[in-house]
Design a protein that fits this description.
This protein is of the alpha+beta class and about 170 residues long. Helix content is about 30%, strand content about 35%. It contains 5 helices and 8 strands, in the order βββαββββαβααα. A 4-stranded antiparallel beta sheet has the order 1-2-3-4. A 4-stranded mixed beta sheet has the order 5-6-8-7. Helix 2 runs parallel beside helix 3. It is elongated, with a radius of gyration of 18 Å. The two termini are about 30 Å apart. The relative contact order is 0.17.
Length: about 170
């Protein structure tokens, strides 16, 4: 996530929708017995190119989700979405999870599984082909998916970095 800092977004005046990706009961073993709490991973996005994820942990499910949403709002990034899909194909690995996302033709829909689907829907991508290999751990899948989306670049940013016009980007 080298260019993540360039994509940071402010939370003011954004209509964010949150999606619960995973909730797990976790246990802390102490001398007095077991203490149970809940861990939640939440993805928030405005379905228009802005997405973030957060982790929350508390003794109650609702508190864990609320903490996850607050954490996600602090980690928002801007993703280039062009005509309802992504600009180019991208692969990214995080931990044991490998994520591959590819642009798709209009009408394809979101071809992705659980955790990846939540991230892609929150971004606002309508047509994409996605595949995950390796670990299906939702934490690693969410992190790998967002890392892959952060590395996407649209034609305007490529032209700006190279110092050339848009026509030269496509014509060589």
């Amino acid at each position: 996530m080298a260019n993540t800092n360039m994509n940071k977004v402010r939370t003011s005046d954004l209509e964010l929708k949150d999606r619960l990706v995973s909730i797990q009961r976790v246990t802390k073993v102490t001398k007095g017995g077991r203490t149970f709490s809940f861990s939640a991973i939440v993805v928030v996005g405005n379905e228009n190119g802005v997405v973030g994820y957060g982790l929350g942990k508390a003794s109650e499910v609702t508190s864990a989700i609320a903490k996850g949403v607050e954490d996600a709002k602090k980690n928002l990034v801007k993703i280039p979405v062009i005509n309802g899909t992504i600009p180019h194909k991208q692969e990214k690995r995080f931990g044991g999870s490998l994520v591959m996302v590819r642009p798709a033709a209009p009408g394809t829909g979101i071809i992705a599984g659980g955790a990846m689907r939540a991230v892609l829907e929150s971004v606002g991508v309508k047509n994409v082909l996605a595949k995950s290999k390796g670990s299906s751990n939702p934490h690693n899948l969410v992190k790998a998916t967002i890392a892959a989306l952060c590395e996407l670049r649209d034609a305007h940013s490529v032209a700006r970095v190279r110092g050339i016009s848009m026509n030269q980007v496509f014509n060589g």
